[in-house]
């Protein structure tokens, strides 16, 4: 019993989808199930009269991804940059263009020259336009936060959403102005956006930083799904439905588009290589890594196949709103910029979700060499502090790798602030361990818990350091002797169980001390490329002392002690049994 069309009633019922099933019930009794396209008021009235309650449930049918693109026949096909082609600065405007670069750290002059609603090529892999998505996709709120964004670029971002998204799926577009200083981002922006009822602008009263600015937007969102975007993007045709389809499939899937490149120099829209995963290297630097060709071949991975990612880039993704709040959103203690992509990625994976790149969804982004806005505090310190918060909450024992690779972080004595709530949250959500994450989600990351281990052999004498009744001796090496086994940690301790090798008195006698990561007198420099003297690479250097002091064997007594370092003295050269990293 198909019923044709009605929209206004959908609204009174608080439903956004044009096609639903009407389930007619009387008390608990099911009377009838109808497929209704809710555009026909009369039909709806009839239904309402004939039953006590009208309940609407999912229409589980599917349709081909909609090719919504209001820019397909552009008003001005000859305009610069049209169709995503490169634009050029006229000769007599070179100076001006150069001058304006710093307004956004990209070619602002050209951005202003090209249409705010330009057309771009459909860069989706073959097959994407034939894919099916469900009729009852969840709705989404677009959240775009910005600080001092370039006018034309911000507008182009908004127009690309409006022009290339099925409007029934967009509940609203929330622009969060993170306390911009530019005048045009106040009244003029508000005025301009009046023509688009779906666009709301939230002007923050103080600088929140992108993390808390996104959260301010999320608090207002009414859609089922949150879709975050940067404020200098161009959404390509068919970008939205494939993202929402994944979230509909499983509300714990976090869906990211392929991020394409809008050239900072000529504003051209460029596609990127397929098969890229979001990854990180120590100390938590985000990067892209191509899936190796042999893996693609062996597993017959297609260009349109979804790619699971250890981490996301950060800027562009769709997440179920309820799930985002269940996860405790972002750590609101993260400041300004950076690290939040690591946090949300670890949180999602370790607490039951998944992060995916959806190749049929493509969004261009202007990558810039430097942030075009100011940081309230030192930029580097801000990012390091954010990352350290993430490491402290999510990395478990692996946080030593983070600090070991960013060793200066420890020396700086970073104040990461209060973490109790974040740690509580992780417990409450019963999230898995970082070890689980490494083994299951990112097995190709090298993450040895220690830098070196095993015997500590003296090169000149081929004898080994040995623990004897809680003191240290020097004996014939024997790989099966447990008393000769040590770990050299990322934090530069030489550990034997819970005890650490140390110089125990002023004479330089060697002994064991209870380990303590904060005790600098327990730290030895060894085989570290970043060490202060490369010729001492094979030495074990006590780094807390003014004068480099090295572990050595006293030739006559064959005992251990520390002494002034001497690069050519083989009695000061040591080798561990195994090395796991540089
Ligand atoms: C990437 C992400 C970005 C974010 C960042 C790490 C992409 C494409 N971009 O760097 O979204 O995850 O890594 O934190 O994945 N903004 C504010 N307030 C601020 C600072 C920035 O609102 O205090 C806005 C800014 O205007 C922009 C967005 O936040 O729209 C992201 O900043 P970005 O473009 O400088 O970051 P990006 O792309 O270098
Ligand atoms: Mn950006």
UniProtKB/TrEMBL annotation:
Similarity remark: Belongs to the glycosyltransferase 2 family. GalNAc-T subfamily.
Enzyme class, UniProt record, top EC level: transferase
Lineage: Eukaryota, Metazoa, Chordata, Craniata, Vertebrata
UniProt entry tagged with the keyword Chloroplast: no
GO molecular function annotation: carbohydrate binding; metal ion binding; polypeptide N-acetylgalactosaminyltransferase activity
Signal peptide: none
Pathway per the UniProt entry: Protein modification; protein glycosylation
Subcellular location(s) per record: Golgi apparatus membrane
UniProt membrane topology term: Single-pass type II membrane protein
Enzyme Commission designation: 2.4.1.-
Protein name: Polypeptide N-acetylgalactosaminyltransferase
Subunit structure, as described in the record: Interacts with EXT2. Does not interact with EXT1, EXTL1 or EXTL3.
Any one biological process term the GO annotation gives: protein O-linked glycosylation
């Amino acid at each position: 019993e198909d019923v044709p069309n009605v929209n206004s009633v959908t609204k009174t019922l608080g439903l956004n989808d044009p096609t639903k099933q009407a389930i007619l019930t009387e008390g608990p009794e099911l009377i009838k199930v109808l497929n209704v396209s809710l555009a026909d008021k009369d039909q709806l009235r009839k239904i309402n009269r004939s039953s006590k309650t009208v309940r609407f449930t999912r229409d589980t049918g599917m349709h081909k991804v909609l090719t919504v693109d209001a820019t397909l026949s552009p008003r001005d096909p000859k305009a610069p940059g049209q169709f995503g082609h490169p634009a050029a600065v006229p000769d007599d405007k070179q100076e001006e263009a150069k001058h304006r670069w710093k307004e956004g750290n990209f070619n602002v002059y050209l951005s202003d020259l090209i249409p705010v609603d330009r057309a771009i090529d459909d860069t989706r892999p073959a097959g994407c336009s034939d894919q099916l998505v469900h009729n009852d996709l969840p709705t989404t709120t677009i959240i775009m936060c910005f600080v001092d964004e370039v006018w034309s670029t911000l507008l182009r971002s908004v127009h690309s959403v409006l022009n290339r998204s099925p409007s029934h799926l967009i509940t609203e577009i929330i622009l969060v102005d993170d306390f911009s200083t530019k005048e045009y981002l106040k009244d003029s922006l508000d005025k301009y956006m009046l023509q688009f009822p779906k666009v709301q602008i939230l002007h923050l009263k103080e600088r929140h930083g992108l993390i808390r600015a996104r959260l301010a937007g999320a608090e207002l969102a009414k859609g089922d799904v949150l879709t975050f975007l940067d404020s200098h993007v161009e959404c390509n045709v068919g970008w939205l439905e494939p993202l929402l389809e994944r979230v509909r499939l499983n509300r714990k899937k976090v869906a990211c588009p392929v991020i394409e490149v809008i050239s900072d120099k000529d504003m051209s829209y460029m596609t990127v290589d397929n098969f890229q995963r979001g990854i990180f290297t120590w100390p938590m630097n985000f990067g892209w890594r191509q899936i190796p060709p042999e893996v693609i071949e062996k597993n017959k991975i297609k260009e349109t196949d979804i790619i699971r990612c250890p981490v996301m880039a950060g800027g562009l993704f769709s997440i179920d709103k309820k799930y985002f709040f269940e996860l405790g959103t972002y750590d609101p203690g993260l400041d300004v910029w950076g690290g939040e992509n690591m946090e949300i990625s670890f949180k999602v994976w370790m607490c039951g979700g998944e992060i995916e790149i959806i190749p049929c969804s493509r969004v261009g982004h202007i990558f810039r060499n430097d942030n075009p806005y100011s940081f309230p505090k030192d930029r580097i310190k801000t990012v390091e502090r954010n990352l350290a918060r993430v490491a402290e909450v999510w990395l478990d024992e692996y946080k030593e790798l983070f600090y070991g690779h960013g060793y200066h972080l420890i020396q700086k004595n970073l104040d990461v602030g209060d973490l109790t709530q974040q740690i509580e949250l992780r417990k409450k959500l019963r999230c898995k361990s970082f070890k689980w994450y490494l083994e299951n989600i990112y097995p190709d990351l090298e993450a040895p818990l220690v830098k070196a281990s095993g015997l500590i052999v003296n090169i000149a004498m081929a004898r080994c350091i040995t623990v004897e009744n809680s003191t240290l001796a020097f004996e014939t090496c024997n790989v099966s002797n447990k008393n000769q086994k040590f770990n050299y940690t990322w934090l530069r301790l030489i550990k034997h169980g819970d005890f650490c090798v140390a110089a125990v008195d002023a004479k330089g006698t060697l002994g064991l001390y209870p380990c303590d990561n904060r005790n600098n007198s327990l730290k030895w420099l060894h085989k570290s490329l970043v060490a202060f003297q490369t010729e001492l690479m094979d030495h074990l250097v006590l780094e807390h002392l003014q004068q480099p002091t090295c572990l050595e064997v006293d030739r006559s007594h064959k005992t251990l002690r520390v002494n002034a370092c001497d690069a050519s003295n083989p009695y000061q050269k040591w080798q561990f049994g195994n090395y796991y990293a540089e």
